[in-house]
Amino acid sequence: MKKIIFLDVDGTLIDYETKTPASAKEAVRLARENGHRVYICTGCSKAEILQRDLPELDGMIGANGGYVEDNGEVILHKSFTVEQTKRVADWCAERKLGIILECNSGRYIDRNFLEQGPDTMVKYMRHKGGTGADREMMVERIKANYIFAEGEELYRDDVNKISFVLSSYQDHLDSKAYFTDMIANTWGGKGETALFGDLSPQGITKKAAIERILEHTGFTQPQTVSFGDAKIDLSMFEICAFNVAMGNGGPEIKEAADYITTDVNDDGLYNAFRYLGLFEKEA
Description:
By secondary structure, the chain is an alpha/beta fold.
């Protein structure tokens, strides 16, 4: 039976230094050559994905489910309203929390993020096992890959997802209580340590996006396989028939998995694809 496969990106398809292992590219190539469909299912925006060196895929779920694409066709796209983005931008500015507005056109950041972002991203990469991260490198990466905006330039109507630097976990709890018309999550550290707050439009989940792709492609739930490394990926596990946790994943994702593979940089994706028989020709 042909499978439809959904891959988280950071820590699953690529490592925490944004490098794609050669074995992961080969796994995706062989599975697609064998007639299986492979999609990424990630919190990243399309603009961020276009900056990554990924293998050829059948489509993507981005912004934790807010943007869905199948072979170049956009089948779902839900953004914040200008009013919602303004509320979040003003709230973050009042608290002096660096913000990232994730749009298909790029990732927009404010002055607070220019100051706080490099150290926080270095901490994220080091907690996840990245050894080559330092502040100077991260400053240059942010300058190259993000767009600076300030004031009313931040009040946009094309924002798929908003992330912000946490000064403490209380910032996340406060955002969850204040932005009741949005979905609040966290991301970023060893295990499930929170470094960033994460806001999405109401009704947006990886699970709902997978349902939309199944409806569009004609694949059925028994054909689904998902791969993840963090708590945010549990939404995929709720719908997919078989679920794989990466060896570098947190305890929650491993506990919920049907199979635990090796680490992302220890051929984790390739080993799991082989275990699932995705390279074998059907009789």
